[in-house]
Amino acid sequence: MNTTTQFPEVDAEGYLVEPFDWNEEIAVELARQENIELTEDHWDVLRFMREYYAEHQVAVDVRHVISIWPQARPRIAHMVFELFPMVM
Fold it and tell me: String of b and e for 30-64 (b: at least 16 CB within 10 Å)?
């Protein structure tokens, strides 16, 4: 992440406090903090979720992604939890 860019505020669970602070550079840094290297499959999921947010003004639940996305991207829909593992 660019040293001149200030990282936006996150809550106790690491989620952005202000969703409009999101950009691809922030996504890369958040993924790095979770030891995830973003692939094109990751970006497909992230872009879908951002488009959903822009249209509905609510973050889509990952389970919802799996239920509505199989028609368009069946391979990725079933990989979501592998792409973005739960961190405990």
Answer: beeeeebebeeebebbbebbbebeeeeeeebeeee
φ/ψ of residue 28, rounded to 5: -60, -45
Q: Are 26 and 46 in contact (CB under 8 A)?
A: no
- pLDDT 10s digits, 6-54: 889 999 988 889 988 989 999 999 899 888 999 998 898 888 888 888 8
**Chain-centre distance for alpha carbon 30:** 9
Write the CA distances from 17 to 9, 10, 55, 84, integer angstroms: 6, 5, 19, 20
